[in-house]
Sequence to fold (110 residues):
Amino acid sequence: MHVRPLRRPAPGSAPSPLHRRRTETPGGAGGSPSPTHEAADEFSPIVPILEAENKGLRQLLAEAQASRDALRRELDELRRERDHWQNLAKLAEGAKAAPRSWFCGRATAV
Fold:
């Protein structure tokens, strides 16, 4: 979902016609329209459906977040193992390159 940024009027400019307009409606104080009984009846069967959809979407979101967290933990574990084996490989290469100061073989009499 993309949200459009709010545009603020330039300083000193007149407010837009939408902001200037203020109409009085019966039953509403200060120009604010009050919901009518007909509008409430029109949307009343839709509300439970939307609430059920909302609940289902929240459950799917929770499952997706749990899966993401499990994958993140698995990835961290794999990175730790990779680093461990890379360090062992570096130590083994360093040990092979270093000259040996001890004798490893059979002594032969000549």
